[in-house]
Amino acid sequence: MKTRFYKKQVWMAVVFTAVLFGCKTKQGVTTATVNPNLSIKEVIKANSKTQPEFKTLQAKVRITYTQETNAQSHTVTLRMLKDEVIWLTAPLNIVRAKITPEGVGFYNKLDNTYFKGGFDYISDILGTEVDFGKVQNLLLGQPLFGVDKTNYTMSLHENSYLIQPNEQSTFFELFYIINTALKLESQQLAQISTQRFLQIDYLEYQTVERQQLPQAIKVISLEGDQEILIELEFKSVSLNQDLRYPFKIPSGYDEIELE
Questions:
Q1: Angle at 79 between CA 229 and CA 47, to 5 degrees
Q2: Which end of the chain has fewer CB atoms at under 10 Å, N or C?
């Protein structure tokens, strides 16, 4: 039997983690200034070198999800096997989620329900189509879409490097803001025809075993006059440990459809 669930439920923020110009990262922007002599090739190359290199990652993530006047906060355990698995579990294993390149799955012990499917639900939350790679890039402070010096142009904006396509698509407009430490500060995607806007701000980075990883992320998703705000705070981050990613839907649970 399939039951229907809605996006304002408590566990929605857990499933997601498995999401303008004014925001500045705290690390590396207080005293440094942009170098106007850097070319877009040099900025893109330097930014690509900030991509964290690891096999596995584990962290505690505090998620604050706000829609309209409703706000909820939860702390989950996040584990990643880079390029293969994003795994999350809530305290007491009440909710567990697993995201792979093949799709998304989770189960909820509070009401004996489960979901298995594609990325449509996360895409709907963010207001733009995503896959495993884009979800992983969002969590690691990397561009959702590839950037190259040939098809993009760069200008200076408020002590940051603003990178955008040479010709914006008729379907959406895309902007990347890179800070003076040459790390991604914000990425923004606007779909004018559908009145959708996605903004991902990297408010703070942290160094873990010489790798630069986001410490605080703010995701704003707008559709018309409806706004979803998701704030992520990463703590107790460790890399390259032997981790397990157990996920087995208990028998007797009801499959749900997400709307």
A1: 70
A2: N
- Residue-wise pLDDT tens digits, 231-251: 999 999 999 999 999 999 999
> Are 29 and 180 within 8 A, CB to CB?
yes
38-77 CB burial, b ≥16 within 10 A, e <16: eebeebbeebeebebebebbbbebebebbbeeeeeebebb
Distance (Å, whole) CA 161 – CA 35: 9
Rounded to the nearest integer, the mean pLDDT of the chain is: 86
User: If you compute the radius of gyration of the chain from its CA atoms, what whole number of angstroms results?
Assistant: 19
On whether the CB atoms of residues 138 and 144 are closer than 8 A, the answer is: yes
- In the numeric block, which tokens belong to residue 16? 């997601």
- Would you place residue 121 in the very low, low, confident or very high pLDDT band (cuts 50, 70, 90)? confident
Q: Can you give the three-state secondary structure of 195-252, one letter per residue?
A: CEEEEEEEEEEEEECCEEEEEEEEEEEEECCEEEEEEEEEEEEEECCCCCCCCCCCCC
3-state secondary structure of 131: coil
Instruction: Supply the pTM of this predicted model.
Output: 0.85
Report the distance separating Cα 186 and Cα 199, nearest Å: 7
If one compares 193 and 34, the residue with the highest pLDDT of the two is 34
